[in-house]
Design brief:
- The protein is an alpha/beta fold and 339 residues long.
- It folds into three domains: 57 residues, lambda repressor-like DNA-binding domains (434 Repressor (Amino-terminal Domain)); 130 residues, 3-Layer(aba) Sandwich (Rossmann fold), CATH 3.40.50; 141 residues, Rossmann fold (3-Layer(aba) Sandwich), CATH 3.40.50.2300.
- 42% of the residues lie in helices and 17% in strands.
- It is built from twelve helices and 14 strands.
- The strands form three sheets. A six-stranded parallel beta sheet has the order 2-1-3-4-5-13, with helices on both faces. Strands 9-6-10-11-12-14 form a six-stranded mixed beta sheet, with helices on both faces.
- A hairpin with a 2-residue loop joins β7 and β8.
- The chain starts with a helix and ends in an 8-residue tail after the last strand.
- It holds the Pfam family LacI.
- Keywords: DNA-binding, Transcription, Transcription regulation.
- It comes from Metabacillus litoralis.
- InterPro entries: HTH_LacI, LacI/GalR-like_sensor, Lambda_DNA-bd_dom_sf, Peripla_BP_I.
Length: 339
């Protein structure tokens, strides 16, 4: 980008003179020829004043698409600990991609029983993070034809979506535990829900399917709570109190796993020597846990970034709906007791 010094050198005048001419300083006294020469050099070099650059930036911002981000939990549910780092990381990916692309008008909305109509106002497109029920599905469809669902795909014939293959991801973790020689494998997980509606959780159903196919399924070793660290801790305390512990657990989130390991540590049970653990998400704290977690890495921020790419493409006129499946990767660390 050309500078005032560049113009001054080419016009053979001082930088101060260039600055005053370009900013229309009425007190400066220069000949018409000098003024014209400065303006011509500035034009040739493509120089823009600070004021002009700011004006153009404001125009760009005002013309950028108005993108809404819809989250499935109310503020009250967030305060109760329902929000999971998994969904938070997806949202961060959405917001980072908006920032990178100069989109400054995105609006975050949460479910509110009294104000659901807010999500249909004044947006060009909508990112829905997490699962929603059929009633809210009807509502968001009124908002725009440009909707991208992240972490669910309620209607892939009409809407774009960014998902992972939960079944494949869970299978990779369970295969790892089975290959380690574990036969008594338990499950600790939460509920995929929207308001009071419980939604199928592929981590749980895949666990049941695979363990049954191996002849190793035991319903008494399945424990369901909420996807929070506190519930992981409380569930593991309950399991320890019952006795007859499994040799290993597949736990549906890193937050729950860290809570569960705290309960095991308090009971003087060692991970992985006495209880092995494989987890899900690979949030940042997974590698820094008291015993680093073997876990399925989900590229949550990339899911969020991809959703913005799809939405902008849809706003630009693409009609064919796309479903993008972001791959996952099993990260093997100490907690699964690699043999």
């Amino acid at each position: 980008m050309a500078t005032i010094k560049d113009i001054a050198a080419n016009a053979n005048v001082s930088s101060s003179t260039v600055s005053r001419v370009l900013n229309n300083d009425p007190t400066i006294s220069v000949t018409p020829e000098t003024r014209d020469r400065i303006l011509e050099v500035a034009k040739q070099l493509g120089y823009k004043t600070v004021r002009k650059r700011k004006t153009e930036q404001k125009l760009t911002q005002s013309n950028s698409p108005r993108i809404g981000i819809f989250l499935p939990h109310t503020l009250e549910e967030q305060e109760d600990g329902v929000d999971d780092p998994y969904l938070t990381s997806i949202r961060q990916g959405v917001e980072s991609e908006c920032l990178n692309r100069g989109i400054f008008t995105n609006k975050v909305m949460r479910l509110s029983d009294d104000h659901q109509e807010q999500i249909i106002d004044d947006i060009d497109g909508l990112i829905v993070i997490g699962s929603i029920d059929i009633n809210v599905m009807h509502l968001v469809r009124k908002c725009s034809d440009n909707i991208v669902f992240v972490n669910c795909s309620p209607d892939e014939d009409k809407f774009d979506s960014v998902v992972i293959d939960f079944e494949k991801a869970t299978t990779s973790a369970l295969k790892h535990l089975l290959d380690q020689g574990y036969k008594k494998i338990g499950y600790i997980g939460g509920k995929e829900r929207f308001k009071n509606q419980v939604i199928e959780d592929k981590r749980h159903t895949t666990f049941v399917k695979i363990l049954k196919s191996e002849g190793l399924y035991n319903e008494d070793h399945v424990f369901i709570g909420e996807y929070t660290m506190t519930h992981g801790y409380e569930l593991m305390k309950t399991i320890i109190k019952k006795g007859n512990l499994p040799e290993a657990f597949f736990i549906g989130s890193d937050s729950m796993s860290i809570g569960a390991m705290r309960a095991l540590r308090e009971a003087n049970l060692k991970v992985p020597e006495e209880i092995a653990i494989a987890s899900f998400n690979d949030v940042q704290m997974a590698r820094f846990a008291s015993t680093p977690l073997t876990t399925v890495k989900v590229y949550t921020e990339q899911m969020g970034r991809t959703s913005i790419q799809l939405l902008l493409d849809r706003i630009a006129g693409r009609e064919l709906p796309l479903k993008v499946t972001v791959p996952t990767k099993l990260i093997v660390r100490d907690s699964s007791g690699l043999k």
